[in-house]
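Predict the holo structure. Ligand: nicotinamide-adenine-dinucleotide.
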Amino acid sequence: MRQVKTLGLLGTGVIGGGWAARALHFGIDVIAADVKPEMEAWIRGAVANAEPALARLTSAPLPPKGKLSFTTDLNAMAAQADFIQENIPEQLPLKQRVLAEVSRHAAADVVIASSTSGLMPSDLQKDMVAPERLIVGHPFNPVYLLPLVELVGGARTSPEAIEAAKRFYTYIGMHGLKVRKEIPGHLTDRLQEALWREILHMVNDGVATTGELDESIVYGPGLRWAAMGTNQIYHLAGGEPGMRHMLHQFGPCLKWPWTKLEAPELTEELIDRMVEGTAEQAAGRSIRELERLRDDYLVAIQQVLRQFDIGAGRTLKALEARLYNDAAAKAPAAAPGAPLRLAETVVRPEWIDYNGHLTDARYFQIFGDAVDVLLRRLGVDEAYRAAGHSPFTAETHVRYLAEVGQNETVYVTTQVLDVDAKRFRLFHGLHRSRDGVLAATAEQLWLHVDTKAGRTAPMPARLHEGLAALAAEHAKLPRPADAGRGISMQKG
Ligand SMILES: NC(=O)c1ccc[n+]([C@@H]2O[C@H](COP(=O)([O-])OP(=O)(O)OC[C@H]3O[C@@H](n4cnc5c(N)ncnc54)[C@H](O)[C@@H]3O)[C@@H](O)[C@H]2O)c1
């Protein structure tokens, strides 16, 4: 299976738009194909709408954004894509027909994944050429923020196709959950539907409003579910003896039963109650407004969970490690007779302040990303930090010399000035790529810290020797005129 540089989308509605936003953000080109030409404007709008929340998800260095193109020629898309994600309406004969057609135009090593919420892969692959590369890759709305994607193979799917899909989804920041057996609705929608049926019953029977039922989740189980699933939570609910006690205590009531599960008749009256109830909950806010609110808290929750290395936070943490590693691998090697060139990045719209230029805090971030590249090369990575050591910044002096605007490409050069057993001193330049102008300098003092003991500690040999070798090489360069400069207001 091939490396994915271009994602082809078949159907560009709600879900296709979400896939586009996520893939583009992480540097994958997207060819979006839909039978309706008007969907081009729609998908471009959907990508723009997703961007503010996606941009806040991580401050790790990102590759340049992917390029989005649109076509109504599904077969042309299939001929160019490295991976195809199908998101057309949930109708089996339609999906079967379109997947069969597209499979004739896509090379046999191109994975074709269906976003289907409930159809079975064995049915979808029925008439396809090279059916072994068909999988279900079922995402959740909004695809650009929720990491879960269920991976389901059909009778003829190869394990390689599932592995290749998992690799690609991981690359764009997702959590691939392999489903062992194909069943209608996969795992999550089967669970969600059980809850949904109970909701419809309780609204139908006049037991509760839609708002009260949502309260019953968001103030309680919903908070737990973000990091631990029902099974783990019930294990805790059993006290010291855990799940066994829980089952003895509450198992008998499963026989009563509390739940109905057969769906109620969808009468006009029930539909009205559901519609009126949710409209009241929206309290005049548009779908767009509510989506923004949802996106903002989804970003915030994942960032909090990252601190606990749990659930979606663990996925985010792994994504960031990958992004930092890729940035380090991409940076040019040290060249004798020149400062290091460690980071190159595009100034993103959200980095701009009210004067229209790169805002102060982002200079620190860009210089920080450059140092991350340098330190990774000398062995300071996630494992090193987890083992209890990390260099800390003790002091930074930034000079702002020229303006840097939105979408400018900038790069950082770095000179190692001094190093001793526990400290090192760096001098950076931030340059505009278009004209090489030095836009800012930063001088930094770093301390090597034993994070468990909470105090400075000697560097390990690899780090110390690496920095010392660079310092010796950089001593041959002219010493930066601003090195050691303080801040003053000279008279006259
Ligand atoms: N909406 C969700 O929450 C959600 C979540 C997960 C998965 N899904 C699944 O994703 C798929 C798409 O759902 P959606 O909500 O994005 O639907 P949608 O109606 O928003 O989009 C479907 C798109 O497919 C296009 N289309 C129709 N026929 C086509 C054809 N022959 N060739 C190419 N394009 C065609 C339509 O023009 C439309 O733009 C479904 O299988 C659905 O089950 C939906």
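The first helix runs from residue 14 to 25. DSSP finds 17 helices and 14 strands in the chain.
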